[in-house]
Write a structure and sequence with these properties.
The structure is a homodimer of 450-residue chains. Chain A is mainly α. Chain A has 22 helices and six strands.
């Protein structure tokens, strides 16, 4: 909240051309907070502030600014400014920025960069979005196993200013194959003349450039790593992914899952505040229209029972209640199952085990709810209706829960994301099932009663 | 997947009393994987394998075993084994284990521990669940600002074996107040005789023992920290939270949010596979019953329009379709808004800004869907019904979206978790609104048409 206040004061200062007061407000801020504020300012103002920092600091602030504003700033910068920024920025971030530049901007800065840097950018920028390669950095420390602990520490001191992390060191052979790793901690505790090859860990946990980011993040979380090395098809070390990137990926994945569960499509990093009407429309229209077709089945079911409804309109009163309860129970089951499948806690072969449990729980839930609503049925339409409502409720909660728990399994079976079993999708399917169950039960019981 | 195979083979080996083959399978595994396997074995078998590792390794494996199995193992261990385990375990993990022991077990091990360790356990075990204090560790490195870089490195080497991380060092005064921090990286690069007080960062990002864990995790993610220091009310350093714990918290929070959105209550760390029927029932019954009451309103709305329905039963065919579309649009809006509020991208004061955007998007979505379903109305009930269905669809998607986007704001306003605006809750509210809109529109149009 305090940042909001600072933002307002900075905006006022900038509006009054009082850059000095603005800088006094900004200077005490940690870099990520400073970048948050610059991200909210218009690009001209933000650039005016950014230019007042030394070049190296500029590049680290720039890395934290949001992607859209980064592009806007890059457009305003002179060619030499942009070239300098590219030289100093973190390798993974500059590759991302490069991917967002226009062809023209790219061509304008490449000649100003050293050959090695051009290659590095081209390399990192070439990996497909969503892969480990796309978030890795090439600024890691790799040493030969022939070095002694003391020599290694010396090399680390030299390379530290350019490396994203120095806390995990990777050992490579002459062809850059990843053959070992050692933590700085172990290195500090090692006998000074021992060679790295004698103390390194040789079974290095790693991933491949084309592995999905989520898998890389999972490795980092599961093995409590500071950084995860990334190798190419030939097992050559090409980059590392650091623990802070894993956190970002985890948060993005979580957003992505929630969007899917809520039947929203699209890029999880998109800003709701900045998204255009067109983007928002596209994120939502697909599922809404698909779900319409789902509901046409429910309508057809109702049409089939037209005669029954005409003979007892009171049946319609309970339609939303009964049908929704199935959808609700189904959403709950699906939510629990999607999570359990995502964390790997439950696997495909556990389906039958989970099924028997689900049946018991759903039956108990159905009974509880039937007890509550049958009373209402009694008041509204007499004992027959109460019986219809109670039996329907048990069956609907049971069927809804089974649909909810099975759909994520079925999707997984067909290599689809189980999180596509969104609440609205399950609701639609349960609705159609619910309509059929309700009117069939009503048909049987009311027929018997007549 | 491969771990599954190893698990099966280890189980077979154990069943044949062939512990040696079992160990051959387990020995090459990284500790977290080894612990996953031990977590799946029965406690006796797991303990039999665990005892074959050296004491220090036992304690680090034990830390990765799942909590329920940890408690089972602790029960089987002798007093001396348990005491040794407590001496060697990570400080934060042993405090958690201590909290899960029986009173009897606690009393049996405390006498065997050194005074300082007893105090450390009591201290760490005393913080409320969900607070920063409950996940912090006391195994950090804190030094006096008077030390030179060289002296500091020497001290770090001595303390490294017991510290959870040595990559961020905290500087304290004589009363243990947190006065600065320095990374091991900067320390390695510093002139050997410079004092820590001259090179430390003095504005240390920190949290307090009673701050929520989610906030601590957010700090670590936002500022890309390796560890976050935790201070008590007097600003004295009492612990640190490490980056890997932040990842765990983030994953837990994400599960928690998804469960809330799916209208499921309860502990996000509970294992779906191991949860009892009673636990699963309790996680679900509350919201299911609450939602029944919500649906009673829809039923009452329908009852009110009984006459209208009797005169045109075809209206009922479109009831699920129209009513659900509002709920679906509402779920989408709520999903987007809950995320935007959680990440802080959208704030309370943005409500009006978001509202105008939402109205436009919802209107466009409503028009698109009205076009699709009015054709169906034409076929099923003629031009009047088509008009009713089209107008209702636009209104329902509009109202549903507005409810979906506003509810998270309202909940935030009343200091409730916006994620409580679950899809089922929004569906229920939108259903009731939808019924009223539908039959009122039908009433007006069909009256005019007659």
């Amino acid at each position: 909240m305090e940042l909001d206040l600072i933002l307002q004061e900075v905006q006022t200062a900038a509006a009054n051309n009082d850059w000095q007061s603005g800088m006094e407000l900004l200077r005490p801020l940690p870099v990520p907070d400073l970048a948050s504020i610059l991200s909210e300012l218009d690009a001209d103002t933000a650039l005016n502030f950014l230019r007042r920092y030394p070049a190296k600091e500029q590049s680290s602030i720039f890395g934290y600014i949001n992607p859209a504003k980064q592009s806007a700033l890059a457009e305003l910068m002179s060619r030499s400014e942009l070239t300098q920024l590219f030289t100093l920025m973190d390798h993974d971030e500059r590759a991302d920025l490069y991917n967002r530049l226009s062809e023209e901007e790219r061509l304008s800065i490449l000649p100003g960069l050293a050959h090695a840097e051009r290659e590095d950018i081209r390399q990192l920028a070439s990996y497909e979005e969503g892969t480990a390669g796309a978030i890795m950095t090439s600024a890691y420390i790799s040493l030969s196993g022939q070095l002694t602990a003391t020599e290694a520490l010396q090399r680390i001191r030299q390379e530290a200013p350019d490396a994203e992390t120095i806390y995990q060191i990777y050992i490579i052979d002459e062809q850059r194959h990843l053959i070992g790793t050692i933590s700085l901690r172990d290195l500090l505790l090692a006998p000074p003349h021992q060679r790295l090859s004698q103390m390194m860990v040789t079974d290095v946990i790693h991933c491949r450039v084309n592995d999905p980011q989520s898998e890389a993040a999972h490795f980092i979380a599961h093995y409590d790593l500071i950084s995860l090395p990334v190798v190419d098809e030939d097992n050559k070390l090409v980059g590392i992914i650091t623990h802070d990137d894993a956190l970002d990926v985890t948060q993005e994945e979580s957003t992505d899952d929630q969007m899917r569960l809520g039947a929203v499509d699209g890029d999880p990093t998109v800003s709701l505040k900045e998204a255009t009407i067109g983007t928002l429309y596209r994120m939502r229209v697909f599922w809404l229209v698909i779900l319409v077709f789902g509901n046409i089945f429910s309508g057809a079911g109702i049409a089939y029972f037209e005669g029954l409804i005409e003979s007892m309109v009171a049946l319609v009163f309970f339609l939303p209640l009964l049908v929704d309860s199935g959808g609700n129970a189904g959403s709950q089951s699906a939510t629990l199952m999607v999570r359990a499948l995502a964390t790997g806690e439950v696997r495909m072969r556990d389906w039958f085990l989970m099924l028997s449990k689900e049946v018991t729980v759903a039956f108990l839930l159905g009974i509880s709810m039937a007890a509550a609503v049958s009373l209402l049925g009694l008041v509204r339409g007499g004992p027959e209706l109460a019986l219809v409502v109670a039996i329907t409720m048990v069956l609907i909660v049971l069927v809804g829960s089974l649909i909810g728990m099975s759909l994520p399994f079925v999707l997984t079976r067909f290599k689809l994301d189980p999180a596509s079993a969104s609440a609205p999708l399950i609701t639609s399917i349960c609705d159609a099932a619910g309509v059929l169950i309700y009117f069939n039960v009503a048909n049987i019981i009311l027929d018997l009663a007549v």
